[in-house]
């Protein structure tokens, strides 16, 4: 079976335009649902982050009032996965040729660090050029912004993709004071951003790029990745 790399942010705070700090971390469902899907299909999952930092849990994703009644289960799966996998790899040490897919979950962390991480950008550029599956969900597509060419152009410009929408950011209460909004930034850089109803599962597959809109899209995105891997076996 295949080896899949899940790239986490290392950020635990999101600095706001009013000078306040918003606590963040990995979103449990967005890490756990793909992990569960991938491992159930027999694939091996490894984790990496900037500097090999183990990001903390976004506590909002453990609140049933925010993340839904299944959130405790997702938290347990995520904690077991991260504990059993050991310390995350350093992004700077990752060889993309070892992986059949590279997946970026969310939480707000990716809009703090991954969007401009040079190591991630180089990793994604090599992976995309090789046709490796690239997956991202919710705020994870912010990491795609790191992949630029020698001329500074964005390597994913013109590609169809889903991501957490401006509407969802507003409904969540984090749009005001955000330094920038993900869906708007993706469109500004040239993405063909597509979206479904707020907080409902919605995914987009464009060649080797498979993306999901929000936490509810995590498992459907992972299902598409597993199906694509099966065609390559």
Structure description:
The protein has a single domain, classed as Class I glutamine amidotransferase (GATase) domain (Rossmann fold, 3-Layer(aba) Sandwich). 32% of the residues lie in helices and 17% in strands. The chain has seven helices and eleven strands. Helix 1 (28-40) crosses helix 3 (71-85) and helix 1 packs parallel to helix 7.
Which structural traits does this protein have?
single chain, 233 residues, alpha/beta, Rossmann fold, 7-stranded mixed sheet, two-stranded antiparallel ribbon, globular, glyoxalase III activity, lyase, Class_I_gatase-like
In summary, what is this structure?
It contains 7 helices and 11 strands. The protein is of the alpha/beta class and 233 residues long.
